[in-house]
Amino acid sequence: MESVDPGHLVETAEDGWDMGEREGDWVDLTAQFIVKAHLGEIPEAALETGRLVLMDCLGVALAGSEEPSARIARSLVPEAEGEDGALVLGTSIRSQAEQAAWANGVAAHALDFDDTSRSMEGHPSVSILPVAFALTESENRSGAELIAAFLVGYELQAKLGRVFGPLLRAAGWHSAGVLGTLGAAAAGSRLLQLPAKETIQALGVAASMASGLGANTGSMVKSLHAGNAARNGLIAARLCQRGFTSQRRALEAFLSAFSGSKGVEEIALSQAFEQLGRPFDIVAPGTDIKLYPSCNYTHPAIDAALAIAGEDGFSLAGIKTVKCAIGSRGRVLLRRLPATGLEAKFSLEFCVACALAHRGVDVDSFRDAEVSRLAEVMGRVAVEEQWPESGDPIPEATVTVTWVDGTQRSASVVHPKGSVCNPVARSEVEAKYHRLSARVIREDAVEESARLLGRLETESSIRPLMSLLQRR
Amino acid sequence: MESVDPGHLVETAEDGWDMGEREGDWVDLTAQFIVKAHLGEIPEAALETGRLVLMDCLGVALAGSEEPSARIARSLVPEAEGEDGALVLGTSIRSQAEQAAWANGVAAHALDFDDTSRSMEGHPSVSILPVAFALTESENRSGAELIAAFLVGYELQAKLGRVFGPLLRAAGWHSAGVLGTLGAAAAGSRLLQLPAKETIQALGVAASMASGLGANTGSMVKSLHAGNAARNGLIAARLCQRGFTSQRRALEAFLSAFSGSKGVEEIALSQAFEQLGRPFDIVAPGTDIKLYPSCNYTHPAIDAALAIAGEDGFSLAGIKTVKCAIGSRGRVLLRRLPATGLEAKFSLEFCVACALAHRGVDVDSFRDAEVSRLAEVMGRVAVEEQWPESGDPIPEATVTVTWVDGTQRSASVVHPKGSVCNPVARSEVEAKYHRLSARVIREDAVEESARLLGRLETESSIRPLMSLLQRR
Q1: What is the pLDDT of residue A454?
Q2: What is the ipTM of this complex?
């Protein structure tokens, strides 16, 4: 009789399900990193950027909580009984951590005003901040644990993005929804203090819950992706804390299915994951902080248009044409005339028209009514693709305004303000936090919350902070 | 000055997000069908099969509620306050409809004992039954509305499966998770009585929430896919009832992203969707009812092994080899020696060993302990791929048992019992419902619920039925 080891699972044909196991690889490296990265060993640069990004994204989430997408989402969220649960930001609702994370993820991305990871070419924080806040609050963990969970969640997403972000986008996916789910599971596993084995299980569960179509850009669903990623990652961690099982191979299948590629590049993966935290991706290549609540591909043109609009003697009257030449990576923005404010965030015509007409681009610039109000100015904006361009992931832009009297003014921007090559000062991020959070919370709570966010890792509980983040 | 229509959205480059709109097509056909299909116009054959499948899947869900995956999932589900909400099947917990649908979806697929659509090559009911029950209960709609919602949800999934089910599987996805989310959104939209426009929006939201990796087969995540699909589809409908927006093009992007194919076949799509309900896919090509709680690809071999084990003079002692030849579609089952009961559901070696050793294959056959207990018998089973095979989607099997004394017995099965070419009688489905539901609910509730399920379309409220489906 043949002897068989029932534990030995072998590979199946390529169109089959595969229950096979592999030896130590990037999965183990990742789990070890998630479990073990100690705040004391995290370089000050990563910590400082982490604090700054948390403050930035929190302000965006507070202001975002007033958007229709966030309001509708949280109307489905029931209040938790008793003291358990977590705050739905910018409200007085406390809900189950999963539900609060969902509502807060939608709010965080509702304005498209949150930071962008260069490695992901997408939004890393909107899925992990909600998990970090909801679990830190409901489990009453410390500010230090919150930051550590946020940083490991960010790092996992960014390193995944580095390996297969472009494939993901080309296949039609929105990275914040897809990679965000794994980042959220990492942050959740960390805050629930899962061991490495359960962390791997949680990542495998999350891999089967990741989703989000790029084609829903310009609709409320784009922000829903962030909420779903947050909630699903948190649920994955919670399930595995209680013994839920996934297949380890799900992680490799995740890379394969979402990249549309059968062969995942093992070497690239291992190399990327050996570098977890060396350096932290949030430091290098870094994260772009947005100064305008629109697609960051529109930011160079906005900066250029604002420069022109700020010059002495500028007048909107008598403008004949506005030529906007954008680097070829910006071709996704070509000919995108919007019908709604959410679509306007991805319209170069609208963003340039708005910068010229209002000499500023902010949250209220993207109301639906503004789209028709600026139709005439938009009609004068002509966008074209230019060659060559810099190697920067954000496409450079040149805006040229020509008046009927023949006058012409032009401005070019390669690195928009807030991007890693043209970074904003801490004070500018603080000013953005003040401006956005003051739309929702009390003025004294703005001051006090900013102070607490600046020294978050020294707070033994974040509950005092959370009490400041309720609607005034 | 150029005149621009801000409502005119045009196509972007192929790697971009696309906010473009199209004229009437399969999306409109689908929405019209979901909104308008009247029970009075649904043929009796579809209605009768629908009732039968509902009873079958409900029994499976009740028994499944005792499985570890279902228990862990519902441990995260909070009870709803007051009388609102829906029953978590097989318990006394009432929760928000979204949450109940989630828990019930996991329970419904926990045993892998539910029906299989030929067009999907997957599980259509486990994502839509939970939505149909939870919303019918919480909104206090009628049994007729429940069946209609179930049938339109089933039909949408099946027709989608017909167009791109094989591509979906090849790309690494589990159809119950992916297509199930759209089916659940359809059922949810129908029960919430959304107009066609909002139904299209809901499908677009659901398209961005669909997920589920085939690689998680053999773990608890496979059943989680059904729960997620149910909850997400329901949430999509609820969100759009309240004004949430998606992009219409998301539906086409959904097909493209999950099939790994840039060019969705428009003609095939339109042809498939013109045939919505003509006939109902649940009637033709039909749905397979499972008599064993394992992958239906194992069923021909189980039938063959049971035939041999049922012959006079059969003895497990002295068996030298068990040869199991399976049609080439069954190659996904080759060399799948399991470590757990969940993996055993996808192991031909285990299923054949179990059929021979126990002369039966049922829920308790797939306990983890059985896997090691049957290791010795499994060790004698050799599986091989055979050519040619029938055109049936389920791979045929021939089992040949050889004893040490040279005796040999062989049996071949092309269409296993329960499959559409070898259908079970209504009485057999009722017997399965009795057997499975009696594991959880009171004996008199078994009788009474079966009676109500048999005439569901005449019930003005399903709340009396739901009260019978609580834990005894």
Answers
A1: 95
A2: 0.94
